[in-house]
């Protein structure tokens, strides 16, 4: 059946397939923004397509073009695609690698065509080089990665592995006699190679676009749940994740503590040092808080200079110790700005599920009330949320005192 396939039809189809995949990659690269790799893949595919076109026209073109230059272009194309895979993964890209590989291949093919005419060696050299480059792409892609990117990596990687293996096996097939003669144009093996190239072309280009799509989806998801300045959870995703965590802790019957952290007199920092320094101080504040958190604790930005922490498994006493360490850590070391050190202190309100249950909003209001009290009592301190039923008048008085001090800015 393979022998019955017509070479011209195969060539035209392969060229059209490669052309449309190149266009697809180029269009995707056009809008890829900072996403690395797509441009390499589009460019590599162009070189690959030109090389293929020259190579299948051996009967009409001089061999310096259809053999030497064609294989050089195909090597360069696959090499650039390999660079694209590395760029996508954020790895170094040795630009000279593909150029040198292409130059060496062209030199070898020129020698074994015009100095010593050895078709078997030319065949082995080009098959092993192109196959080897596909295997190098596969090696970069078939790695452990977080889902969903792993699916896309493995999709492209498996195709590269399969096609690379087939290319490397081509000269072996001749060597071990599975293929009676060296493949001349129109031989079944040559037709099979062209069909394989077509499938590899469609598969790898789709795989690369899938990789970019998953990467973009991941970035969008991250953006939708993180605060752009501090990279902490934003209010909405903090609430969502807190609900899940609180339900889990309630089922297990373990305590959870919610802490509200608010920077003291932050307006003064902005006024004295400017907003940019204010932003840097907020990032410093988050980094400092992060030093005291475990991997399953949640940290979110609730408002301007107000952050919320949720500490699963900690009762009031242990959570108060964490809060105190955060307070001390911040007020004992200034943030070094370019001009002079910026001293920062925080007030913290602590509310635990032991007294306030597992409802997020109830915990939040209890911690907020405690934070108010910390502010009213002079700032730079940790206050525990009073148990429900504590003196309401007392709380009202504190709220008024806090508002009074805030208005006086003391
Ligand atoms: N630089 C910077 N400032 C912010 C940001 N978000 C809020 N702020 C500022 O934080 C300040 C908060 O001021 P206030 O609510 O009066 O609180 P405060 O000055 O910290 O006083 P107390 O909380 O009472 O100690 C305001 O000046 C806001 O402009 C931000 O993302 N970056």
Automatic annotation (TrEMBL):
SMART domains assigned to the protein according to its UniProt record, in alphabetical order: GGDEF (SM00267)
Signal peptide interval: none
Enzyme class: transferase
PROSITE patterns hit by this protein: GGDEF (PS50887)
CDD domains given in the database record: GGDEF (cd01949)
Its EC number(s): 2.7.7.65
Gene3D superfamilies in the record: 3.30.70.270
Sequence intervals crossing the membrane: 12-30, 42-58, 64-84, 96-115, 151-172, 192-214
Domain GGDEF: 254-387
Stored Pfam families: GGDEF (PF00990)
UniProt keywords, alphabetically: Membrane, Transmembrane, Transmembrane helix
Alphabetized NCBIfam families for the sequence: GGDEF
Protein name from the UniProt record: diguanylate cyclase
